[in-house]
Amino acid sequence: MRRQSRETSVALQGPCSCEETTFRDRYEVLRTIGRGGCAEVQVAHHLLTGAEVAVKVLPKVKGKAALSEASVMRWLDHPNVIQLFQVIETREHVYLVMELAERGPLKHIPPGGMRPEEARRVFRQIAGAVGYCHGQGVVHLDLKLPNVVVDAAGTCKLIDFGLSLRVRPGQKLRWCWGTLAYLAPEILLRQEYEGPPADVWSLGVILFYLLAGRCPFKALLRSGMVRRIREGRYHIPDRVPPQARSLIRSMLSMDPARRPTVEQVLQHPWLREGEEASPRQDGEPPPKRPDPAIMAALLDLGHDPYEAWVSLTRGKFDDAAAAYLILRHQLSQGAGCAFNGKPVRPAHPSDGSVLPRRSTSELALRACPSACDHRLPQEAQPTGHKDLRRASLAGTDLRWLPQRTPAPAPAPQKPSHSRKDTSTGQPKAWKRVARTLATCFRQLCCCESQSGSQEGAPGTREPKRGRGRARVAPM
After folding, report:
1. Same domain, yes or no, for 336 and 443?
2. How much of the chain, in percent, has pLDDT values that exceed 70?
3. For residue 386, what pLDDT band results from cuts at 50, 70 and 90?
4. In sequence order, which residues have a C-beta less than 8 Å from that of residue 257 and are 6 or more positions away?
5. Residues 14, 90: contact at Cβ < 8 Å?
6. Distance of alpha carbon 224 from its chain centroid, rounded?
């Protein structure tokens, strides 16, 4: 059985996206960090901003099935879900450019398990990400420890949405896929099942693994593991806290209807013990205004800020949107980040929408002057939204980026016969740039009233789903 194509497709690059050089024009591959199935994960250098990113390289397949993962990820925005930056399609591959989690997968658990406090902290983040996905109508269907990565700050991020689906409440699924050790019994029994309870079962396996240091259904042979899962036979070590044991048993219930929802899991007394509130699970509405600081930086980098914002509001993952998202991610990492990017030439130099690029030493991400830093009404303040990361960073300390060095004052010259003004005011070129930026912001203000009536927020249509091919990954 084959999945039907999604109604919601991910916008790709322009006419030159068919060339394999398209990716290399924008990114420099540094190393390969993982391989699995038909995909390869690389670390690459974003030439425009200097940021290191993760790139998942998928072979081009019949139709656009390789884009299904991006079609799901475009709906998601959560601090514990990996951020998608850009999608590039070439003749042979699809490149998914994403946030890089420097510490890698969460798969090296101590033999006796983590300390309960650490396991609780990690599991809350994983469950919070899954609960958010369920709230967006997305089921992961391949939850396992290798699909959780950790960034430099120690934050867990959910990855690999290659098997994920958008589903309706109560929708039944029939296909069988995933990793055997984490599969729910109803899937192994080839029954119709609902996605959220199957994800909850996988979360129960993850929590068991974190606390015990091993799989709950471990067996010498694959057939033995299948039998244990179907019968629900496992033993929780005595060292696991009693309240954690009760939570594991509820999630590993043989009856899917008796399993708690992820929201109920997060309210369990053991998870709430000694922890601050979990990360937000609800999506946020699209911001009504762009971040002035990042829009100014986009102008420095040679992108039209107006076009970048249109791409973001329409859910396109093109060059301009990628630059915006990567810059915002860099800012969120704090003052310790270094900016060492360099402008790159556009694919089409004749494109009038691409503004003249400045040299690397001139690039600076800065807040706009008070004249253009409008004080928005409360309802228009950018508080974040579903399809983009958290919004305004205008108040962030931006001194970690190299600032423009003022040019030395010109040497005095003798008056000439020309009446041209030789004052030391702002050069005309900079005046043109300032006018261009002001025009872009005026265009944004005008287009928002039109887009509010003509287009909904990104990702308002629910794509159709078909039936998938049976796939079970080895342990």
Report:
1. yes
2. 61
3. very low
4. 197
5. no
6. 38
Per-residue tokens: 254: 């043989």
pLDDT (tens digit per residue) in 154-173: 999 999 999 999 999 999 99
Residue 26 lies in a domain: yes
Residues 6+ apart with CB under 8 A from 167: 137, 138, 139, 173, 194, 195, 465
Q: 441 pLDDT band (50/70/90 cuts)?
A: low
| Beta-bridge partner residues of 316 | 11
Tell me the β-bridge partners of 315.
none
Asked whether 80 and 133 are in contact (CB, 8 A), the reply is: no
CA dihedral 109, 113, 116, 117 (to 10 degrees): -30
Range of the domain at 45: 15-98
The amino acid at 393: L
Residues 6+ apart with CB under 8 A from 39: 56, 57, 58, 162
Q: Are residues 347 and 257 in the same domain?
A: no
- pLDDT surpasses 90 at 222: yes
* CA pair distance 178, 430, nearest whole angstrom: 56
pLDDT for res 317: 86
Distance, CA of 406 to CA of 62 (rounded, Å): 54
Amino acid at 407: A
> What is the distance of C-alpha 449 from the center of its chain?
28
Token output for 354: 């691409």
Candidates 87, 80, 100; CA nearest to 157 is: 80
**Does 220 share its domain with 329?**
no
Choose among 269, 264, 262: nearest CA to 197: 262
CA quadruple 279, 281, 283, 284: dihedral sign:
negative
Say if residue 316 is in the same domain as residue 374.
yes
- Give the CATH number of the domain where residue 257 resides: 1.10.510.10
Residue located via tokens 């070590």: 237
Task: Work out the pLDDT band at 38, boundaries 50, 70, 90.
Answer: confident
As given in the structure block, the two tokens for residue 266 are: 């997060």
The answer to whether 302 touches 357, Cβ cutoff 8 Å, is yes
pTM of the model: 0.69
**Residue 142 is a catalytic residue:** yes
C-beta neighbour count of 160 within 10 angstroms:
22
Give the CATH number, domain containing residue 74: 3.30.200.20
Q: Quick one: 171 and 197 in the same domain? A: yes
How far is Cα 180 from Cα 194, in angstroms, rounded to an integer?
17
Pairing of strands 104-105, 148-150: antiparallel
d(CA 344, CA 370): 30
60 shares a domain with 113 = no
The residue annotated as part of the active site, out of 25, 77, 142, 151, is: 142
**68-117 pLDDT, tens digit each:** 898 899 879 899 999 999 999 888 889 999 999 999 999 789 999 999 99
